[in-house]
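User: Second chain of the day. Same drill as before.
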Amino acid sequence: GVICNAPVWSLRSLLDDAGKQLLETAEAPPNKRQSINDDNDATEAKGYLTNLDEIEQTRSFLHLHLALNATDLDLTKLEAHYTVMSQGLSDPTAELNMIAVSNPCVLDDTLAPPGTIVLHAYGAGNEPYDIWNSNNSTQKLPRSEYNALKEQRAQVLWDAVESIIPDAKSRTILSLIGSPKTHERYLRRPNGTYGAATEDLLPDGSTAIEGLVLCGDSIFPGIGVPAVAVNGAGAANAMVSVWDHWKAMDRLKDQGVL
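Assistant: Same format as last time:
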């Protein structure tokens, strides 16, 4: 069997013609959006594969990775994680409003060389993709414009960091900015998306192709490492029985691994 954690919007490109035909003629699974919008009107039935193509994508990420000189910085007064609302609490989902700042060296000072710390500030699922193309088209921005846009868009992340460490810029040893294009290129995320909208999550990863099970952030319970780990475990259980799992764990115990 095959467990596929590729983004659901990429599945079509991974299938041969027979696989596409089989999934296209299969019934699309129900989702929360259909229940919300159900007004008892007759709607055109869509195939499973077309349903995947049309699942709504959440917005993308903007990242700021920093290495800072920590000389004379009292780490005991810092927290491991902060949430900064750049525009207030009126709309937490607004574009680049909720900014997360992770400061892992508070928990483990070996994550950076002595006298330094690393920080990660990011807007999760609140950065639009279209502005990263030329004139909101599908054409790439020229490199100089792209770099300038990264600096411009990342200012809100710098503001969040400086609300915690006011002299962060003067302490900077290294700074790296990641855009939706970064997500798209290196993580192969269509449009740099964070994942599927909650209303469109598939109830499970089963498909009409025997031995093909889907998992990932478009399958219930959705986005985030804990959620994806849950449906990944579910996909594994669909392939191998619980009893076979127990036997494998027993062998690992006999080997002293567990």
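DSSP finds ten helices and seven strands in the chain.

User: Great, on to the next one.
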